[in-house]
Specification:
heterodimer, A: 121 residues, mainly alpha, 3 helical TM bundles of succinate and fumarate reductases, 86% helix, B: 239 residues, alpha+beta, Ubiquitin-like (UB roll), 2 domains, two-stranded antiparallel ribbon, 7 strands
Chain lengths: 121, 239
């Protein structure tokens, strides 16, 4: 007996959420470390943009960060909606998908804007 | 020796009903099951409840006592009613037949859905399987094998309450013990049966089952083991 398609789908979503959580754990540590270091160094916003803004490596890092968050959060939201709001699974999936796309679009827009402010692209 | 009285509220009815109040003589070393039995024998013979062994072997006397699922035969009144008050209800998440008796059909059907039956790979002509007590898989199976199916973990699980299809801690724990049984040949089907949002992936690891298990088992750890096993099977394409 193989798993039913919906069971396989749920398993893949679970895996996606765990993998994205692992990525997020690393990203959050780097992100918070960066904030603490810049605050301790007394850098202004202009100086931060000047150092980090146009950097392709930081751009790639934050793209990964945003995409991991946009995968992780909607899967959890889908579970919350179906369990706590008693929402049918397909409705919860649709809402979570819209939320994830919105989250990804806003995050990528911010990352792109920061990259361009620093002289990238 | 009687030492005062207890004020006891007991659920009467089925899904719809009310709490009835009784005064029960308090005694030394009195269990909650003693209290329920006193009510049924001396105050109201129409009270329905279930028990058998009275010594924590059968698991049939589980009820909700002051908000928490417990074996009533192994729960002393002194442990739970310091103020002399008891509120006794049927187990959560199971259909109430009458008063304190619940229908366990769903609970045991879910054991079957989780492929909780042993699938032998040998016949009577084969030699006995030699399994060392210290073997890793044997120790994983042993950690969960003492479950007696009382339903306390099931009634303590919030996910069961939110998602009526969820197989629950006991059935998943049973599946995990069989997956670690090297004599069993049904693990592939079993992993497919316990995956998904009615299975191990629905568990939030809140550990209500661990907190309440009268046998001090850890179904959450068993479910975590299932999640790992299912994940590997999915990655290998064998799910």
């Amino acid at each position: 007996m193989s798993a039913r398609p919906d069971t396989l789908g749920e398993t893949r979503l679970w895996l996606a959420q765990r993998f994205s959580a692992a990525v997020l754990a690393i990203c959050v540590v780097i992100h918070l470390g960066g904030i603490i270091m810049t605050v301790q160094a007394g850098l202004t916003a202009a100086e931060i943009i000047d150092r980090v803004g146009g950097h392709a490596g930081w751009f790639a890092f934050y793209v990964v960060f945003v995409l991991a968050a946009a995968i992780h959060a909607p899967i959890g939201l889908r579970t919350v909606l179906s369990e706590m709001m008693a929402m049918p699974k397909h409705h919860a999936s649709l809402l979570a998908l819209v939320f994830g796309l919105f989250q990804a679009a806003l995050g990528l827009k911010a990352v792109w804007g920061f990259y361009r402010l620093g002289g990238g692209a | 020796m009687s030492t005062g009285s207890l004020s006891v509220s007991v659920w009467r009815g089925s899904k719809k009903g009310r709490f009835a109040d009784y005064d029960v003589p308090r005694r030394d070393r009195q269990t909650v099951l003693d209290v329920v039995t006193h009510i049924q024998r001396y105050i109201d013979p129409s009270l329905s409840y279930r028990f058998s062994c009275r010594v924590g072997v059968c698991g049939s006397c589980a009820m909700t006592v002051n908000g928490r699922a417990r074996w009533t035969c192994r729960t002393h009144v002194n442990q739970v009613a310091a103020d002399g008050r008891l509120r006794i209800e049927p187990l959560r998440s199971l259909r109430v037949i009458k008063d304190l008796s619940v229908d366990m059909t769903d609970f045991f059907d879910k054991w079957a859905k989780a492929k909780g039956a042993f699938e032998p790979t040998a016949t009577r002509t084969n030699d006995l399987a030699a399994i060392q007590p210290g073997d890793f898989k044997r120790r994983q199976a042993s950690a969960g094998i003492e479950c007696i199916g009382c339903g306390v973990c099931y009634a303590s699980c919030d996910v069961v309450q939110w998602n009526s299809d969820y197989l629950g801690p006991a059935a998943l724990n049973r599946a995990w013990t069989l997956i670690n049984d090297v004599r069993d040949g049904g693990s592939r089907e079993r992993l497919a049966a316990v995956a998904g949002d009615a299975g191990c992936h629905a568990c939030h690891s809140q550990q209500g089952c661990v907190e309440s298990c009268p046998k001090h088992l850890n179904p959450t750890a068993s479910i975590a083991g299932l999640k790992r096993a299912v994940a590997w099977a999915a990655l290998k394409g064998t799910l």
